[in-house]
Amino acid sequence: MEINTGNLRTLGTGFSAAFRGGLGMAPPQHLEIASVVPSSTGKNEYGWLNQVRGMREWLGDRVLNQITQSDYTIKNKDWEDTIEVERNDIEDDNLGQYGMLFTEMGRAAAAHPCELVFALMKAGFSTPCYDGQYYFDTDHPVLDEKGAVTSVANTDGGVGAPWFLIDVSRVLKPIIFQERKKVQFITKDNPNDENVFWRKKFVYGADARYNVGFGFWQFAWGSKQPLTAANYAAARAALMGMKGDYGRPLGLLTGAKPLLLCAPSLESAALKIVNNELGADGETNEWKDTARVLPSAWLA
């Protein structure tokens, strides 16, 4: 193939099409547990996460709720993936492998949010959230009915493969996917570019800006205990009994079916709990159809 502007434009269009095709190959599984929050600056502040507000009886004047500020901030990060195409490969029409490479680049770009979101969920047992505690912890500070600080758990610990019970009916899910710039396909294929002059390489890449962080810890229960009916029941009871400040019930698990998210090794145990008609000892399975199971390869 002759190296000229027209041929390079056609070649770049083909690489871009292969990239876009790859974007559609990775299911956006991260949207099951993450809310997309647009960002217009280098970082977003989430001090308001300290408060889960509710209605009160209107007696006298309105009570002006001050948003308690914390320094919880999610800073956007830059991400990129780049492929170099040899000038000799273009001249020799040796381009068959590049279509597959650009398709895979697109698939990897679409899957990257899943990689980040589920990695953060898995790391929640040892990563702080907005209240300074680990996201899955036994001593989150919450005000009781009298305004005194008390400790609340959203985990029962353990050392095995992780599983999570999540209320996904709320507008803000457990993970925040903060998006500053969607992934873009960029070409650097001018024959006069320095990368061509010095190294005989035409460069094509993808880049984006985004990051992930934690939302409300109250909406998810994380466990590394064995995934048994008894531990599942404990997780349900804990979430349904979850309260905000001043003893206000949060009403969790009263909307859409909760999500039972698990590592692949726990898929069988999860399906038995919520699909089987009978329990392990032949009794009626009281937990049948009480959750939707999502085994995720990203938790492997």
Q: Could you please describe the fold and organization of this structure?
A:
The protein is an alpha/beta fold and 300 residues long. The protein is 26% helix and 26% strand. It has six helices and 13 strands. It has helices spanning 5-23, 87-91, 96-122, 194-199, 229-240, 267-275; strands spanning 34-38, 43-45, 73-75, 77-86, 140-143, 149-152, 155-158, 163-166, 175-188, 201-214, 220-224, 259-262, 292-295. The chain has a five-stranded mixed β-sheet, covered by helices on one side. It has a four-stranded mixed β-sheet with strand order 1-9-10-4. Strand 5 (140-143) and strand 6 form a beta hairpin. Helix 1 (5-23) packs parallel to helix 3 (96-122). It starts with a helix and ends in a 5-residue tail after the last strand.
* Strand/helix succession: HEEEEHHEEEEEHEEHEHE
Radius of gyration: 25 Å
Largest sheet: 5 strands, mixed
Low-pLDDT stretches: none
